[in-house]
Amino acid sequence: MFYRPEDGHGLPHNPFGAIVSPRPIAWVSSRGADGVDNLAPYSFFNGVAYVPPQIMFASTGAKPDQDAGKDSLANIRETGVFCVNIVEYAMRDAMNASSETLPREVDEFAHAGVGRASCETIDCPRVAGAPAALECRLTRIERLPGAANYVVFGEVTGVHLRDDVLVDGIFDVTRYRPLARLGYRDYTRVDEVFPLARPDDR
């Protein structure tokens, strides 16, 4: 089949998210200027540069108690910092609980029963025990076409790695099994990896 997005797909559910998958999940923690902590997952997320290390995540949709975007976006605009926590399969239920739309004064760490720890380079909480966490300073926010579509870019200023996922100096994702987003209400996890040498490496 072929369809133009502006004309609709004619299917029971939008296939776009299933096509662009699997997607890593940025479990973004932030703190508002009022001191309230926030924790929310975003599946439009990836690394975008090595030197200096930089990441991006996209926020889509709005909340009635925020002027534009969601709580994470509002907090990052106010403070200029945030942390991306990597989600392991064992934390899938807590991650899902933190995705609930709640009033901006609600602390999702407490709501989802997630432990928090302090960051080293920024004034922001991180998920205690996460396999990895990336402390970030905002570099830019880009508005995209659509009602409430934004991309947040940040430079990584600190990296936390859980000791048990380091094996012979390698960050071994099979030790914690990253959770990834598919389409619809579906997720997957990484249970095995395989090497593939690039032509330039031969």
UniProtKB/TrEMBL annotation:
Residues forming the Flavin reductase like domain are: 20-178
User: What residue ranges carry the coiled-coil annotation?
Assistant: none
What InterPro entries does this protein map onto?
A: Flavin_Rdtase-like_dom, Split_barrel_FMN-bd
Q: Which domain of life is it from?
A: Bacteria
Mention any Pfam family matching this sequence: Flavin_Reduct
Mention one GO molecular function: FMN binding
Q: Protein name, please?
A: Flavin reductase family protein
